[in-house]
Amino acid sequence: MLKNMLILGIESTCDETAASIVEDGSKILSNIIFSQTEYHKKYGGVFPELASRCHIDKILPTIEKSLNAANVKIEDIDAIAVAQGPGLIGSLLIGLNTAKTLSLFLNKPLIGINHVEAHLYAAMMDKMEFLTLPALGVVISGGHTMLLKISKIGTYEIISTTIDDAIGECFDKAASILDLPYPGGPEVEKLAKLGDSSKYNFKSGQVKEKPYHFSFSGLKTKILYTVKGQSGKKENLDVIDEIEKKHIAASFQKAAFTDLIEKSLKAARQYNLKAIYFGGGVSNNNKLKEMIEEKNDLNIPIFWPSFGLSLDNAAMIAGLAYHKYTNSFDSRIDIEAKTSFCSF
Q: Most exposed residue of 78, 115, 260, 302, measured as fewest CB within 10 angstroms of its CB?
């Protein structure tokens, strides 16, 4: 592999504008993230048009900050990496067109990166000396819930996905029902610490004849009915006391994670996998880490991205790009944005 290769990574799939300089796939020289959370809070979720406009305003200053933080000049960059999907079309196009422009202007290779694959790499990039394969990849974010067999970096087999809501999306919706602010995941975790997780017997859905697939829409609906009554209307008054919300949060979190953990461990056993790598924002939940460590009867190592790499970021984009580039990757300027999940 090439040594001392500097890659500029750009991430703009949703509501984070990010840029990073990574050396040789793992040494992070800078990782700058501009979060739009405060802009979207009043909508209870990401407002796509607003996200695009924010990216336009912030992407060049974010790249400049990343270069300055790394003490690197733009001319020193060896390649440009950009998340080309999946994500919001407007947001993706801002990052992609910026990367294309830089690639043409600097005459540097352009590397398109699958955002989901990068989330898995985030759990590897600062632990490459401990890389254990084949492994199970577990992607848990606001847009995705997937189990994959990782044979090597760049080679994957999809085992299962969600047929409806992603687990992060379900956390956000449960938080909204409980009148918690956006983003919902950290707020549900915080409230759940105060509650009794055995108070309510919630369960995630099962998919007939697809035992590893996920379904969280029924769990979300059960939370809605428990809090608002059987009419299922969020605007209704609560039918429970305020004190019950902490128990509902704890019981909901337990149900969602129990389903995730049981399917993950069963898949790892069936496919004879040697480790588990988690990626995506939900992987930052401490209760999840505690629960899987308790239930890990396979006694295989479990790897998590560091906090700065668990949410959307550009370091994981640049890091993964190094492996793509050094494995006979064909640089193309005509790569396109892909809004939905595509095969690796």
A: 78
Do 132-305 and 6-121+309-325 have the same topology in CATH? yes
Name the CATH architecture for the domain at 132-305: 2-Layer Sandwich (3.30)
SS3 state of residue 114: strand
Q: How many CB atoms within 10 Å of residue 122?
A: 29
Contact in structure between 236 and 267 (CB atoms under 8 Å)? no
- The SS3 assignment for 230 reads coil
Please, which residues bridge with residue 28 across strands? Answer: 22
pTM more than 0.85: yes
Domain 6-121+309-325 fold is Nucleotidyltransferase; domain 5 (3.30.420)
Alpha carbon distance 148, 132 (integer Å): 15
Tokens standing for residue 199:
């108070």
Task: In the chain, count H helices and then E strands.
Answer: 11, 10
CA pair distance 275, 283, nearest whole angstrom: 15
- Render pLDDT for 219-234 as a digit per residue (tens, 0 to 9): 999 999 999 998 878 8
**If we measure between CA atoms, which residue out of 181, 182, 227 comes closest to residue 200?**
227
User: What are the angstrom distances between the C-alpha of 147 and each of 23, 63, 74, 172, 268?
Assistant: 29, 33, 37, 21, 10
Other residues' Cβ atoms within 10 Å of the Cβ of residue 267:
20
Domain range summary for the chain, segments of one domain joined by +: 6-121+309-325, 132-305
DSSP state of 205: B
For residue 21, report the phi and psi dihedrals to the nearest 5 degrees.
Answer: -115, 120
The answer to whether 315 and 31 have CB atoms below 8 angstroms apart is: yes
Give just the sign of the alpha carbon dihedral 152, 317, 101, 89. positive
Q: What is the mean pLDDT of residues 297-320?
A: 95
Cα–Cα distance for residue pair 312/13, rounded to 1 Å? 8
